[in-house]
Specification:
The complex is a heterodimer of chains A (406) and B (502). With 406 residues, chain A is an alpha/beta fold. Chain A has one domain (4-404): Alpha-Beta Barrel (TIM Barrel), CATH 3.20.20. Chain A is built from 14 helices and 12 strands. Chain A has an 8-stranded parallel β-barrel, surrounded by 5 helices. In chain A, α2 packs across α4, α6 (183-197) packs parallel to α8 and α13 runs parallel beside α14 (395-404). Chain A is globular and about 60 Å long. The relative contact order of chain A is 0.12. Chain B has 2 domains: 81-298, Neuraminidase; 337-485, Jelly Rolls. In chain B, 4% of the residues lie in helices and 45% in strands. In chain B, a hairpin with a 5-residue loop joins β2 (43-47) and β3. The radius of gyration of chain B is 26 Å and the shape is elongated. Classes of the chains: A alpha/beta (406), B mainly beta (502).
Chain lengths: 406, 502
């Protein structure tokens, strides 16, 4: 997959393969009769140097390239940090990243000149429609983050509303993200949900790993302090590691998730939560760094239609065995939610198939195939390819995924 | 740029209310606040030299137009109304306008593949004629014109790397000077310290032409802050923070008298971005209104700004003068005092010493200076570790491909500052400083890299041991290691406000 021509050549072959995989998977998935999803997470931005993603042609070329992985369901990223991939009224569209807002630094590479959020680059609905036309599953991959570890990618709304910024224990506000403790912030986030639902996706996956430096340590906003006082009187504000602080802030995230879920349900759209650092005990890694750690509770409550386990905290001495145990634990604690497990090219949280291959001293293709089989045997609804960039799922890996579904 | 904030301040009088409300209806926007008058829809206002007109930009049908309107409103004259986008107007003394203009007709991919020259440059509008002052695939923006009309100062991306990954060390922006009379290429004066989360915006040249102030973002977790320097003193060590650290502050403009700047600012508890003024000599500040992008009128008696996409003008009088001093942290007042030193260590060595001398708490400025001989940059070398009961790695200087000073915040979370990779095969002196409000790291007495943790640092009270030379390879050594309090003599101090006036 070296260039666009070979992509075009392989396109029809890929589509046929995807259909075959879908058919095989339907028969062989853990849930009898259910379709086994091979989901590709795709951010068209990552193809900016390969295709002209501000055009319909380029966007469809991205789709065709993605289909080479044999994916039968595609969740398209709707934003990077706060920068939207479609003209968002909620995020107050502005021309390019910079320099039309003094508070945002410019970026001089190709990404800094993209206008995916402007009418010029409004290809987001096009690609969703193209998936529908081809009979593929499709959804929106959105993120909890308001920046992407980079001030150039901060949210317009966040930059414009310093009064809602998160604060440290020292009382220092930070322009990277707003505090969930403000009702206005939740209202804005829910408006964004409406905007996504208007695009008529089949599913929305909310990714808690891409948190853009969000931290409990930056939730010391005015309403948070008021709530702490209400709950604990004159007790000094605790460090962000205090479980009571995390529970208090976490409850606001949970409320937001419930409202998010209700909106999706009303629109007939599936709501999926994506979490990292899952284990078979108490999700210690998840709790340490991320919000949304109450996913088990929320899943049992029925907030999520599905859970995407983005990474697990496996035992490096027995990566596959320990992963399998965690998968079983997740399936036992999922409530009514269906489950997706990863076959990740990205080595986030050291959970990519490359890392499994390294630890088990097998090929990447073999590792990817084993991960698919484990997910299927555990009774998952599907696997997620995280993320599909240009050429990062090599043909041998794609073939192994397809083979594992036979 | 456009934001929704509470407009809860009552108008001064019934007449003012009626006038303001009328203008608001006319403009289809928010109700004016105390003492202010809505002028037109737009942003980034700039008074003309005679004070009778205001230049502004307006986003209309997805195009940034540039226009002029009377200070009391009325008919608008369009200087740029598309195609292309225009922004950040700045008047010349003779009544011309310098602004950013670009008409990017290609997609990003087309431009990238085709080596496009389309970007945003500076343009001059004078006597009905438009002339491009700068061009190229870059962004030249937020110009400031000197009061004699000879020079323009602006932020530019020209010449910066196109690498924009999160881990990039490349600068994002530079401040350039352009000779408006002679033309030619812009002259780069300053570059933002490395990293794509640091950068500049909106320089402003003082009325006497001797001082430059600008918005400066110093790190990812930092806030915009106004810095200043004397013209001609553009080395990093000469830059001085002008606005208080507890404020987010950017987009400064000078009062015609030269002693006061106005800027866009925010302090926790404010209802939104605000119009602030500061006496630059004393540091006294005052918040005047909710809004952004303020500028003074030529006589200094009025101030214009925008809020919710509307340009407002309000009087600026004696009662508006800056009056409040906000708390500041000063961390380089004390001179170096070496408390502990060792020499010639070629393998990992642990030292136990009198713990009480190294109970730095969370406020004492202390430093670690390590002179090393290293044969390469591959592999991790933990050159110095201060092992405290509060945290095993209470303070650490380590080197891999780069060199780092690390410590912890009060919850034990990792904090660091780094200097870009060093060259191989020679001796270096790495000096790390943990000051009350920041971490600094200097290599061979260079201007230090700075990180502002934005969190309370861990109080270091109970030293267990110092560890020196972990990971050293054969032939490598720590020639000398020193720990002390105060500001180390080999690291240049940054300038302070008072230095701006020397």
């Amino acid at each position: 997959m070296k260039n666009g021509e070979s992509v075009m050549k392989n396109m029809s072959k890929a589509v046929c393969a995807a259909v075959c995989v879908a058919c095989c998977a339907q028969v062989l998935a853990g849930k009898p009769g259910a379709k086994f999803d091979v989901v590709a997470l795709v951010d068209s931005l990552d193809f900016a140097k390969n295709y002209d993603i501000e055009t319909r042609t380029g966007t469809v070329q991205v789709l065709e390239h993605v289909l080479l992985t044999h994916a039968n369901d595609i969740w398209w990223r709707d934003k990077g940090g706060g920068r939207m991939r479609y003209p968002s009224k909620c995020e107050m569209w502005q021309i390019s990243e910079a320099p039309f807002d003094k508070k945002r630094l410019p970026s001089e590479d190709i990404y800094g000149y993209l206008r995916l959020e402007s009418p010029r680059g409004n290809e987001y609905p096009v690609v969703l429609e193209e998936c529908r036309r081809r009979g593929l599953g499709f959804g929106i991959h959105t993120t909890i983050e308001e920046n992407h570890w980079c001030s150039t990618l901060a949210s317009n709304w966040t930059l414009a509303h310093p009064q809602y910024w998160g604060c440290t224990l020292l009382g220092e506000p930070w322009m990277g993200s707003c505090s969930i403790m403000w009702p206005e912030v939740v209202a804005h986030k829910l408006e964004m949900v409406d905007e996504r639902l208007a695009l008529k996706p089949q599913k929305i996956m909310l990714d808690f790993w891409r948190n853009g430096a969000w931290s409990y340590a930056r939730e010391y906003s005015t309403p948070a302090i008021a709530e702490w006082k209400r709950l604990y009187g004159d007790e000094p504000l605790p460090p962000a590691t205090d479980p009571r602080w995390q529970k208090m802030v976490g409850a606001h995230f949970d409320d937001y998730l419930r409202k998010f879920s209700a909106k999706c349900r009303a629109a007939g759209v599936e709501f999926i939560g994506g979490f990292v650092g899952v284990d078979d005990k108490d999700d210690a890694a998840l709790k340490k760094r991320y919000c949304g750690f109450s996913w088990r509770h929320l899943a049992k409550e029925g907030v999520f239609d599905a859970i995407y386990v983005m990474s697990v905290t496996y035992d490096p001495k027995d990566p596959f065995g320990s992963t399998e145990r965690i998968y079983r634990n997740v399936m036992e604690n999922r409530g009514s939610a269906e489950v997706y497990f990863p076959v990740a090219s990205y080595n986030m949280e050291k959970c990519g198939f490359g890392e499994y291959a390294r630890l088990a001293k097998i090929s990447e293709a073999e590792a990817a195939g084993r991960l698919v089989r484990m997910a299927r045997n555990a009774g998952a609804r599907g696997v997620v390819l995280e993320c599909v960039d240009y050429g990062n799922y090599r043909p041998a890996v794609c073939d192994a995924i397809a083979e594992a579904l036979k | 740029m456009r934001h929704n904030t509470k407009n809860d301040v009552k108008c001064e009088s019934r007449a003012a209310v009626l006038f303001c409300a009328g203008m608001a209806v006319l403009l289809g926007c928010a109700v004016p606040q105390q003492g202010e008058r809505a002028v037109t829809k737009g942003e980034n206002p700039a008074f003309s030299p005679d004070g009778k007109r205001i230049a502004f930009q307006r986003l209309d049908d997805d195009v940034f137009k540039l226009g002029i309107v009377g200070v009391k409103g009325g008919a608008e004259e369009w200087i740029e109304a598309g195609p292309g986008n225009a922004a950040y107007p700045e008047w010349t003394p003779s009544g011309g306008l310098v602004y950013m203009y670009g008409h990017d007709t290609e997609t990003a991919y087309e431009a990238w593949r085709g080596n496009s020259k389309n970007g945003y440059g500076l343009r001059l509008y004078e006597n009905g004629q438009r002339r491009d002052l700068t061009t190229g695939r870059c962004r030249d923006f937020t110009p400031s014109v000197s009061s004699d009309g000879k020079k323009a100062y602006f932020v530019t991306t020209r010449g910066v790397s196109s690498e924009s990954t999160v881990y990039s060390k490349a600068a994002t922006t530079r401040i350039a000077e352009l000779d408006l009379a002679a033309g030619g290429e812009p002259h780069i004066l300053m570059e933002s310290p490395g990293g794509n989360n640091t950068g500049f915006v909106q320089p402003a040249i003082s009325p006497d032409g001797k001082m430059l102030v600008w918005g400066h973002l110093e790190s990812f977790f930092d806030a915009w802050r106004i810095y200043g320097t004397r013209i001609g003193r553009f080395d990093r060590v000469e830059w001085c923070p002008v606005s208080p650290r507890c404020l987010s502050a950017l987009a400064p403009r000078w009062h015609p008298d030269g002693g006061i700047i106005c800027f866009t600012g925010f302090k926790k508890g404010d209802p939104g971005w605000g119009v602030w003024v500061e006496d630059i000599a004393t540091g006294k500040v005052k918040r005047l209104a909710t809004g952004e992008n303020p500028c003074f009128s030529p006589d200094g008696k009025a101030i214009a700004y925008n809020r919710d996409g509307v340009v407002y003008v309000r009087p600026f009088g004696r009662d508006d003068l800056p009056s409040e001093i906000l708390p500041e942290v000063r961390d380089d007042d004390d001179d170096e005092m070496v408390l502990w030193a060792k020499e010639n260590i070629s393998k990992e060595t642990s030292f136990k010493t009198d713990s009480s001398r190294f109970a730095f708490g969370d406020k004492t400025t202390f430093f670690v200076r390590v002179k090393v001989r290293l044969d390469g940059t591959a592999g991790l070398r933990q050159l110095f570790i201060g092992d405290y009961a509060e945290h095993e790695y209470g303070v650490q200087i380590f080197a891999n491909r780069d060199v780092w000073l690390s410590t912890r915040d009060h919850t034990g979370r990792y904090l660091d500052v780094k200097q870009a990779r060093y060259k191989e095969g020679r001796e270096y002196t790495f000096t790390g400083i943990r000051a009350a409000g920041r971490l600094l790291l200097s290599v061979d007495g260079s201007v230090p890299a700075v990180a502002v943790p934005r969190a309370k640092v861990l109080s270091l009270d109970h030293l267990r041991r110092f560890v020196v030379g972990r990971g050293l390879k054969s032939g490598e050594s720590v020639v000398k290691v020193e720990v002390g309090t105060g500001w180390p003599t080999d690291v240049p101090k940054f300038k302070k406000r008072e230095d701006l006036f020397k």
